[in-house]
Amino acid sequence: MDDSSLNLCQRKYTREILKEAGFLNCKPVSTPLVPNQRLTKDGGTILEDISSYRRLVGRLLYLTTTRPDISFAVQQLSQFIDAPTTDHLAAAHRVLRYIKNAPGQGLFYPRNGEMQLNVFSDSDSASCLDSRKSVTGFCIFLDYALIWWKSKKQTTVSRSSSEAEYRALASTVCEVQWISSLLHDL
């Protein structure tokens, strides 16, 4: 970091998570989830000690404040917090191996830039095998600086991928209107 930028990261916190879970010396991976893997509530055997899974997912949720790259994976893990299985724990361990790859990764904010919003939105149509609901994801940049992001399961089941995309776009537009209003006030 210099006078012309700001870099936010949680390197120490990330290392604490890895140390507590026993993953400080693990082999890193390049993706937070196995590509095309779909977690279900019935996959695997229910864990005997669910408190450690809950604590791990809670800590990962806090880490998403500076690591938007794990938001989707943590959203997937958090929906099984009531009855986690060995498959869910294995997926959580994969996220740990992913953050081990770059524990100091975070958000970069340049000092000077244009005050222009750039917005990206997408949906993963019917990605939840248990409920058939789609997942909305979006990110909002102020020039090149990421200022807002979200990955969330949609509240209703869409009948088509077009409808899921429309719902994602509508949700994103609401967030953009709020941020535009906030920036205008500032």
Number of strands: 5
- Mean pLDDT over the residues: 89
Instruction: Please give the domain count.
Output: 2
In DSSP terms (H or I, runs of 4 or more residues), the helix count works out at 5
| Beta-strand proportion | 15-25%
Largest sheet: 3 strands, antiparallel
Model regions low in confidence, pLDDT < 50 over at least 5 residues: none
- Structural class comes to alpha+beta
**What distance separates the N and C termini?**
25 Å
Gross morphology is: flat
Helix content: 25-40%
Order of the strands making up the biggest sheet = 3-4-5
Rg computed from alpha carbons, rounded to a whole number of angstroms = 18 Å
Order of helices and strands: EHHHHEEEEH
What would you say this structure looks like, in words?
The protein is built from five helices and five strands. 40% of the residues lie in helices and 19% in strands. With 186 residues, it is an alpha+beta fold.
Q: What structural keywords apply?
A:
single chain, alpha+beta, 5 strands
Write the layout of secondary structure elements.
Elements: E1 5-9, H1 11-21, H2 50-63, H3 71-78, H4 86-101, E2 106-110, E3 117-124, E4 135-142, E5 145-153, H5 161-185
Antiparallel strand pairs: 1-2, 3-4, 4-5
Helix pairs in contact: 1-2, 2-3
